[in-house]
Design brief:
Blueprint (H helix, E strand, L loop, with lengths): L7 H47 L15 E5 L3 E3 L2 E10 L9 E8 L5 E7 L10 E9 L3 E11 L4 E2 L2 E5 L36
Parallel strand pairs: 1-9
Antiparallel strand pairs: 1-3, 2-3, 3-6, 4-5, 4-7, 7-8
Length: 203
């Protein structure tokens, strides 16, 4: 029979080596993960720089200057059968002809409060000096909460022009239909409701 004596020093040495290997494996895994994250961050940063370099800067639209070329009259919105009508008149107050006249209205949506712009053509689109043209739009009262005038454009290429504005027609007051309410009285015609035989509480 062969006896294998137990050596505590050798067992402890093996355990220490195993612990060292596990610790080294954990350190390597952490280092590899850190390198991957750093590489991903660098790639994203480089991609963002490339996109920014290829995107042309936004050029703000120049604000028109000078005397007003048009005067816009904005009527109060009218309500009818769940629809709102917005409209008014544009007058050419300059000494030149205005071609392709249109107005921009900015609506505020009810559901999210965001703004939405709509361009309306003026009829007629060609306005001689001191000539007037009309514009109008109709939409559901459930879609938009408010509307305001945002700008006036003319050709070529819908160029913004200087304009003035004023309040136009007032909205007609709503008419309430009269209603007749008939109250039926108890008792016989000509009979008092409150008698000694038929007392009633007076409030």
């Amino acid at each position: 029979m062969f006896n294998d004596p137990f050596h505590p020093e050798e067992a402890l040495s093996r355990q220490q080596e195993s612990t060292k290997r596990k610790a080294l494996a954990v350190i390597c895994a952490v280092a590899i993960t850190a390198l991957l994250l750093a590489g991903y961050a660098l790639v994203r940063k480089y991609h963002a720089m490339q996109v920014a370099a290829n995107t042309p800067p936004a050029v703000p639209e120049p604000t028109p200057k000078g005397p007003a070329l048009a005067h816009v009259v904005v009527d109060e919105p009218t309500l009818e059968k769940g629809m709102t009508t917005v409209g008014g008149v544009v007058k050419n107050v300059s000494n030149q002809q205005l071609s392709g006249v249109s107005v921009t209205l900015e609506f505020r949506r009810r559901k999210d409060g965001k703004s939405e712009q709509t361009v309306l053509r003026v009829t007629p689109a060609e306005l001689q000096p001191q000539e007037e043209g009309a514009y109008a739009a109709k939409f559901s009262i459930n879609d938009f909460a408010s509307v305001r005038l945002s700008g006036v454009q003319t050709d070529p290429e819908s160029t913004m022009i200087v304009y003035s504005s004023s309040q136009g027609k007032k909205r007609a007051p709503e008419r309430l239909q009269p209603q007749t309410i008939v109250v039926k009285r108890a008792g016989k015609p000509g009979e008092f409701l409150n008698t000694p035989d038929n007392p009633a509480r007076v409030p």
